[in-house]
Design goal:
Helix content is 39%, strand content 24%. With 233 residues, it is an alpha+beta fold. The protein has 2 domains: 91 residues, Roll (PH-domain like); 78 residues. A 4-stranded antiparallel β-sheet has the order 5-6-7-8. Strands 9-10-11 form a 3-stranded antiparallel β-sheet. Helix 1 packs across helix 2. The longest helix has 31 residues.
Length: 233
């Protein structure tokens, strides 16, 4: 009596059994002897051993995501410059007109007062100036990879983190693209899975998002028919 692997649940079943005693899958009688794949994995006679893991698509978020931050930084610098100009040109003379003592004090320390105003405005601009290069570094350190077996998301500037979604757990995919994203040719792909750790992930600001979504959907549908993978890592 030979044993084969049930194509439904993967349990060992006798070739004389009409159905799998574990899951109830109806089996054909008189099946041929099972074939043995790489690593000693046993496949049912009708099953085709899956190939090794292959990369299908790689990419990362587009730098177009920081265009809005650049615009806000430019506007903020212009606003601060305008405030500084108004304070120095009109604010200080108005304060100096209050009394002769104040006028004398301002005239005596005019350079120091102006530099103090410039320094305060510069400090106000520092957070935005730091946020911009950090946003660029965060985008450059994020990498997406789609293989015929899984979806990998690697991110982190100093320390690295890796999210992984098995293709067999992908339940649904969505494609989103705003008007500005259409102009820059980018968009988002949302992936909904049955994974308990990462049930939903988003591929942000990727090029050709519609094609990438279709690739993931087609691959997930294809591998959902298989129960075993052969991975090198």
């Amino acid at each position: 009596m030979a044993l084969v692997t049930c194509p439904e649940c993967g349990q060992r079943v006798s070739t004389d059994a009409a159905s799998c005693p574990h899951c109830g899958k109806v089996l054909s009688r008189g099946a041929a002897a099972p074939s043995v794949g790489s690593g000693g994995i046993v496949f049912a006679p009708a099953a085709t051993p899956p190939g090794p893991e292959q990369s299908l698509w790689e990419g990362g978020p587009s730098l177009a995501l920081v265009y809005g931050k650049v615009l806000r930084l430019v506007i903020w610098v212009v606003v601060l410059y305008t405030i500084g100009y108004v304070v120095i040109s009109f604010g200080l003379p108005a304060v100096a007109s209050i009394s002769a003592d104040i006028r004398a004090s301002i005239e005596e320390n005019a350079d120091m007062v102006k530099w103090a105003i410039v320094a305060l405005l510069g400090i106000a601009a520092v957070p935005s100036m730091i946020a911009l290069p950090l946003a660029v570094a965060r985008l450059k350190s994020t990498h997406y990879k789609v293989t015929n077996q899984r979806i990998l998301i690697e991110y982190g500037i100093f320390s690295k983190s890796l999210q992984e979604i098995d293709m067999r757990s992908v339940d649904d995919t969505e494609f989103h693209q705003t008007f500005l994203e259409r102009i820059f040719g980018i968009g988002e792909v949302w992936i909904v899975s049955t994974d308990k750790i990462t049930p939903r992930v988003v591929l942000h600001a990727i090029h050709e998002p519609r094609n990438t979504r279709e690739l993931i959907r087609a691959t997930a549908y294809q591998v959902s028919q298989r129960q075993l993978f052969t991975r090198s890592t």
